[in-house]
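As agreed, record copied across for absentees:
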Amino acid sequence: MSYSDEKFWELKQTAKWSLHVHEKKRAIAQLLDDYGRGALPALSEIRETTVYEEIKKVCADAIKSAKSRAYKGVDRVPVQKNKNHNKARGSSKLKKKGRKV
């Protein structure tokens, strides 16, 4: 088991079984920050396991955030911009006006 796998497992277990709500919340936030979308299965499992409505809501919010944003972590994929994107758009506008490029 690598350090990353061990850390993931520990955070998940803390979020599921800690006696303190603030520790559960901290573990959920750490899972989200460190693993992003990779934490979605664990967050779903935590939400289904817990009996605390407050933790269920925190998990639901974390799942929603992970799906809507790119977080640093294993799921982050850099977006490559096309260098010619603006030039192509500008060229078509100029052609529409009847000008040569």
